[in-house]
Amino acid sequence: MRQLIRSLITALCTLWLRAAQRSGFVEAEMVQRTVMLLRRFPYWASGHDFLSSRALAAGNIRTAFASAHAVAALRPASPSSWLLLSQCHLAGHQFEAAAKDANKALALDPLCFRAHEELAAALIPLEQFDEAHRHLELIPKEQRTQHVHSMISFLHFRKEGDKDNI
Q1: Which sign does the torsion angle of CA 136, 142, 147, 149 carry?
Q2: CB 24 within 8 A of CB 50
Q3: Closest C-alpha among 136, 72, 73, 83 to residue 106
Q4: pLDDT on residue 163
Q5: Residue 158 host element (H or E)
Q6: Is 164 in the same domain as 126?
Q7: Quick one: 109 and 54 in the same domain?
Q8: Regions in the chain scoring below 50 on pLDDT
Q9: Which of 10, 19, 87, 112 has its CA 20 to 30 A from that of 140?
Q10: Closest CA to 104 of 119, 94, 92, 122
Q11: What pLDDT is attached to residue 162?
Q12: What is the pTM of this model?
């Protein structure tokens, strides 16, 4: 019975969030209401996901981490949960942890192109350039974002620079 009630509350909260996003609610108000709902219903994964994404975009790393950890705990079988946590680690310059989380997402879905992108972004500052390039090349050309193209360009430029210094 308790699980059924949690499922209903989660569904209602998620419906509210989707309706608010579609109706043009002011984002700050949505964030504030989401925080209030999460205080009462801490098991609402979609609310934590929304809050973490918005906090990360606003540069509030502490809030982003807290909610991303909650999402990963609530949805451990979801690659997007681990991608969100990886993004938080990247923002916090915790590159080894970011790579670990991106690898967890890839273990759940080896064809998740965003996970390959996040992993490459974590590997570059760790100076694992060949491995980063390998992951970027696994992303089909039509799926590559500007960020992917920038990382590939950086890696090619770096490789050419190494040849010049020999």
Answers
A1: positive
A2: no
A3: 83
A4: 59
A5: helix 146-164
A6: yes
A7: no
A8: 166
A9: 87
A10: 119
A11: 63
A12: 0.83
